[in-house]
Design brief:
This protein is an alpha+beta fold. Helix content is about 30%, strand content about 35%.
Length: about 80
Amino acid sequence: MMLLPPGVSVSAVTRVSVEVADRPGVLLRVLGVCQRRGARVVAMTYGQDGERARIELALSADERALRMARARLAGLVDVHAVT
């Protein structure tokens, strides 16, 4: 379960789930892509299961920025899936 900071409504964010390889630096690369594409990360959870990990993001951005962020995330080497 992801907790949003006070003052952020559920309708103002989009949830994005990113399945990644559990390697050093992957989390920073994912967050960097979001920042560079103009998608503000409001909340995040990270969980790992063996050699794979799942990053759940709550992003605040317009539709164009979300589309660009998802496409760029899907193109990262250590990313297995973006939903």
